[in-house]
Amino acid sequence: MDTKPAAVPARQEASKPEVPKTPKAHKLHPEVVAAQAKDILSVLLVLRFVNAISVRTFFQPDEYYQALEPAWSIAFGTDSGAWLTWEWQHQLRSSLHPVIFGLAYKSSYALMTWLEFFAPFKSLILVALPSVIQCVFAALGDFYTWKLATEIFGAQSNLPFAALWMTILNPWQWYCSTRTFSNSLETTLTIAALYYWPWELLADSKNSKDAPLQSKSSVNSLRVSLFLAAIAVLLRPTNLLIWLGILTLVVTRLTLDGTSHLQVASIITLLREIIICGTATLAISILSDRLYFGFWAFPPYQWLYFNITQSLAVFYGQMPWHYYLSQGIPLLTTTFLPFTLIGLYKSTLSLSPSPSATSLTTLQSNILRTLSFAVLTMLAALSLISHKEVRFIYPLLPILHILGAPYILTFFTTPSPSSGTTTTTTITTTTTTTITLRHKLFLANILSVNLLLAGYLTLAHQPAPLSVLTFLRTDFERLHPQTLSLTPPNPPQKTELFALFLTPCHSTPWRSHLVYSALRARALTCEPPLATAPNSVERETYLDEADRFYQREDDGGYGAQFLREEMWPLRDGERGGEVPRYIVGFEGVEEVLRGFFEGEGADLGVELSRVWEAWNGAFNEDARRRGKLVVWDTGVWELPEGTKEA
């Protein structure tokens, strides 16, 4: 149930100075508004479902290893073969996010078992299930972007639809919103919390008679906002920066127009609800973590300790201070960058209206300024941290769409002569839906670039890491039809090592796509140097398993020493280590493998033959991942009795 008050006072305030009145817009009936919202949400759900099923590419491992692997462990047990990274072993992550997918896995598998679906069909459903769930969150993120824009600019304005079209046509949204990153859910929670936030706290006392937070609906709205915000902060502690920025301006009114009408009662209500909602959400999180880890844990503290005190975040890369400005914001907004930058800049200023136009109301201006301040606060704080990723500022994208909407609408449209308008020096708020497109060629070029980017990234940029697991899973179903279980057998049975991944660490998903617990696989690891001190020699010279495999040797090559000494070591005249049925790697490692198996490792009896390969995109940022992804049959395992060649 929507507990948001009917409308913020921003659309009813009188602006300063006195200006000529514009034609009064026809007010939409509440039932029309409700039906419109329902239709928009329905369309968005369908759109994001299509988006989810069209994503066929690999982006970053956190999509799987920080969400789906622990979720798989929740659903099918710790012995199911799920890969739990060091963050989960040291309680750095909240269990709230994977619990969503874990419960979905468990319930859907129970239903399919009761309906007696055959195993390969169950695996198809389980692989697709997380994306289907995430598409709902993605649609809600788009929906609340439109809803917040409507609260700011008014239901009769075209600006909310400009913000909506920006979020729909943004390539980053198409590429990432339906992926199971905690950042994706954090983005939805943030924009929904911003919608329910009581923005009347920013109103000018001269233009508002009632004190804020005195009505039941306003307090209920605040509670929803705080609850959603608290979950977002628990998922990603850096989300707190957005809310610190907003609260700073609410309390200090720094840079805001007008005078505050916050009363003691309103401040007490705000503090009370922050404490109650924060404590309740924290209690839920602690209980969830207790059930998941089996003991009491507090992941936010562990996250701060390891990433800041122990400086382990830099182990995964360091970026210059300007990364978010020079790369982060441009990658998020792509072709919309000029409009979002103008919106961000203009909203921070107190613009004087032109003599012949009306300005935004004081509250509207204050809301936009507060949102821009929250953006700048988060950018400034995260720029001080060495390890940076675009995903870390993903929650700012809906805000940037709203800030840029007035300028993209003004640039590409012209209101009809009969339309009522409200205009600032650069913002035109059209009070009817009658508009005329202009700069059509430029608009067509922008849309074409966005569609091409979205299509390439979701269909053609690194598709092999997903398709190789489909090959391995289906081939396992062909070779071992009697062992298609998601839980390990009791008593345990020793099975063949089905696949060895000689790729950079976490180059593919894992159990969420391999599915079967009997499908044993091994991959190079990249655990950080937890036992070393920051800035120590041990920390600086540390090499993880993947680094050791790719480390250049004296002859200029790589891999031979690792294969000889770590993968298949020779001890007491015998070669140790398991030989898999298949070896998976990018085609650059084929020379390394053949050189080893035809030389020092000839006693293993391996005769490599390519059985599968796939194109992995036109380019790759990591040179180790360039070229095709290949599966080689080692030739040491016979086909099970009664099995035909593939």
Automatic annotation (TrEMBL):
<feature type="transmembrane region" description="Helical">
    <location>
        <begin position="124"/>
        <end position="146"/>
    </location>
</feature>
<dbReference type="Pfam" id="PF03901">
    <property type="entry name" value="Glyco_transf_22"/>
</dbReference>
<dbReference type="GO" id="GO:0005789">
    <property type="term" value="C:endoplasmic reticulum membrane"/>
</dbReference>
<keyword id="KW-0256">Endoplasmic reticulum</keyword>
<feature type="region of interest" description="Disordered">
    <location>
        <begin position="1"/>
        <end position="24"/>
    </location>
</feature>
<feature type="transmembrane region" description="Helical">
    <location>
        <begin position="392"/>
        <end position="412"/>
    </location>
</feature>
<keyword id="KW-0472">Membrane</keyword>
<feature type="transmembrane region" description="Helical">
    <location>
        <begin position="329"/>
        <end position="347"/>
    </location>
</feature>
<keyword id="KW-0808">Transferase</keyword>
<comment type="similarity">
    <text>Belongs to the glycosyltransferase 22 family. PIGB subfamily.</text>
</comment>
<keyword id="KW-0812">Transmembrane</keyword>
<feature type="transmembrane region" description="Helical">
    <location>
        <begin position="441"/>
        <end position="459"/>
    </location>
</feature>
<comment type="pathway">
    <text>Glycolipid biosynthesis; glycosylphosphatidylinositol-anchor biosynthesis.</text>
</comment>
<dbReference type="GO" id="GO:0000026">
    <property type="term" value="F:alpha-1,2-mannosyltransferase activity"/>
</dbReference>
<comment type="function">
    <text>Mannosyltransferase involved in glycosylphosphatidylinositol-anchor biosynthesis. Transfers the third mannose to Man2-GlcN-acyl-PI during GPI precursor assembly.</text>
</comment>
<protein>
    <recommendedName>
        <fullName>Mannosyltransferase</fullName>
        <ecNumber>2.4.1.-</ecNumber>
    </recommendedName>
</protein>
<dbReference type="GO" id="GO:0006506">
    <property type="term" value="P:GPI anchor biosynthetic process"/>
</dbReference>
<feature type="transmembrane region" description="Helical">
    <location>
        <begin position="367"/>
        <end position="385"/>
    </location>
</feature>
<dbReference type="InterPro" id="IPR005599">
    <property type="entry name" value="GPI_mannosylTrfase"/>
</dbReference>
<keyword id="KW-0328">Glycosyltransferase</keyword>
<keyword id="KW-1133">Transmembrane helix</keyword>
<keyword id="KW-0337">GPI-anchor biosynthesis</keyword>
<feature type="transmembrane region" description="Helical">
    <location>
        <begin position="226"/>
        <end position="252"/>
    </location>
</feature>
<feature type="transmembrane region" description="Helical">
    <location>
        <begin position="300"/>
        <end position="317"/>
    </location>
</feature>
<feature type="transmembrane region" description="Helical">
    <location>
        <begin position="264"/>
        <end position="288"/>
    </location>
</feature>
